[in-house]
Amino acid sequence: MRYRTQFLLSATDPAQFPTSGAPEIAFLGRSNVGKSSLLNALVGEKAAKVSSTPGRTRAINFFALTNAELPISVNQHPKLVFSDLPGYGYAKISKSISSTWPAFIEPYLAERPQLKLCICLIDAKIPAQESDRQLIHWLRHAGRRFAVVGTKADRLSGNERTRNLAALKRDLEVDDLFLISSKTGFGLKTLWQQVEDAAQ
Ligand code: GDP
């Protein structure tokens, strides 16, 4: 399906979360991992711009995806909702997932019933960071479905891809990890497939 994307809202409190009930896909990653570039590649420039607007970088930004084949005048329920979470990783992670994250993020990840998949973005060029390991550990512990995705694949040679993929899998203790590039579009089809499978 082709989607039309619309910015819904920025939430800094659970009371503001959208109520549509549509399956939600969360995007997570350390600052600078390429999250805005990925959202840009998946749903268009508007989304990435909204998410990097000061004041919205500490919020969860929600986007509604509707069927682009239907005319814009038809009032549609979203097929999917993307939630863009604040980047983490500036400070050392302690007891909670991240001391740099606002307090409402953990309950969102732990309790949101319509959250179907967490897409964890990892920079494929550099070794796994402790904050990434802790996030994945936390999601696993919380019983959340997640996909680990290595970003910026275009910056790696063929050999580096193989080597870094193996190292990241080992260090993050995950069986599945695939690479994407927002710049070339590499891997984005696989990512969409995972999104649509999870949203079923
Ligand atoms: P965010 O902080 O996670 O939203 O990261 P951005 O999307 O702003 O990207 C951080 C930096 O990485 C920018 O300089 C981007 O141009 C670069 N970047 C993001 N995705 C890619 C990619 O797929 N390939 C390459 N070569 N650079 C990328």
Automatic annotation (TrEMBL):
This is Probable GTP-binding protein EngB. Residues 21-200 form the EngB-type G domain. Belongs to the TRAFAC class TrmE-Era-EngA-EngB-Septin-like GTPase superfamily. EngB GTPase family. The keyword Phosphoprotein does not apply. It comes from the Bacteria. The gene is yihA. CDD domains: YihA_EngB. Pfam families: MMR_HSR1. Necessary for normal cell division and for the maintenance of normal septation. Its cofactor is Mg(2+). Keywords: Cell cycle, Cell division, GTP-binding, Magnesium, Metal-binding, Nucleotide-binding, Septation. PANTHER family: ENGB-TYPE G DOMAIN-CONTAINING PROTEIN (PTHR11649:SF13), MSS1/TRME-RELATED GTP-BINDING PROTEIN (PTHR11649). InterPro entries: G_ENGB_dom, GTP-bd, GTP-bd_ribosome_bio_YsxC, P-loop_NTPase. It comes from Acidicapsa dinghuensis.
